[in-house]
User: Fold this.
Amino acid sequence: MKNDVLIFISSLAEETGTVLKTYFERPHRLAEYKPDKTLLTDADLAANHLIVDSIRKAFPNDHILSEEGNTIFPSDGRPTWIIDPLDGTTNFSQGLHYWGVSIARFVGGWPQAAGLSFPVLGENYMAFRGEGAWLNGKSLKVPPGDSHMVSFFLCDSRLHRRYTTTIRYKPRILGSAAYNFCGIAKGVGVVGLESIPKIWDIAGSWLVLSEAGGAILPVNGEIFPLTRGRDYNGFSIPMLGAADQTLLDKAKAKIEFVMQA
Assistant:
C-alpha cells in the first residue's frame, strides 16, 4: 500500500506541476480575487480539477479537502486527501518562480503521505510517515542547522504585522508556505515562520520536513490529529519550522505575538 500511495501521489504532483507550468509560460495569466481577498487563477481551477478527478478514480472511497472545494474535514474517519492545487498563487500570477502543488493523504487525522512539485525550480518532494522523505527520488535529510556561516530565516509578508522577533538569521520572503518548509528540509533556510497558513498550505510540507529530520509545530498548541467536522477554511495555523529541535526552541523563544491582523 505504501508504495502504491507514494507512486500515485508523487506522479500526480509532478503531472499537475507540468500542467501549471504551461499556464505559467503564457504571456497573460488570468486572475481574480476570491471573497477572502486571495487570488484565484484559471490555473488553480485546472489543477484542482485534475487532482480531484485523479484521486476519485484511484481512491473512490477517500474524501477530498481542497482550498478550491470542500474545506470541512470529514466526520466518518475515512482517509482524506488535503490538496493545494497552486501554492504561491500571487508569485505565479506575477511571474515569480516560487510556487507549486501540494498533495497530502491523511489517515486517522495525521498526514500519511505527501507529494509536492515546484516545476520551475525542478524540485519534486515526497514523504511517507515513518519512512522518510525524498527530493527528486533521492533520500532527503536536513543539513545541520549551523553548517553554513550565513543562513536564512524564511518568513511571510505578514510576519511583522503579527509578531516581533529577534531571530538572528537573514530574513527571506519567498511567497510559498509549502516551499518554505520544504526549503528548510533541503537546507535553503534553517528557520521558517508562517503567520496565517491554512491546513492545505502546510499539510504536505509538514510531513516532508518532519520525515527529513527537521522540527515543525504550530506556534500555539497542537494541530494533529485534525478535528472531525471542522471547517478549516476559516482556521489559520501559525507554524514554526526549523532544521532541528534545538533551533526551533531557540527561535520560538525569540518570537512574540503582538496583534491580530
In short: The chain is about 30% helix and 30% strand. The chain has a mean pLDDT of 90. The two ends are 43 Å apart (CA to CA).
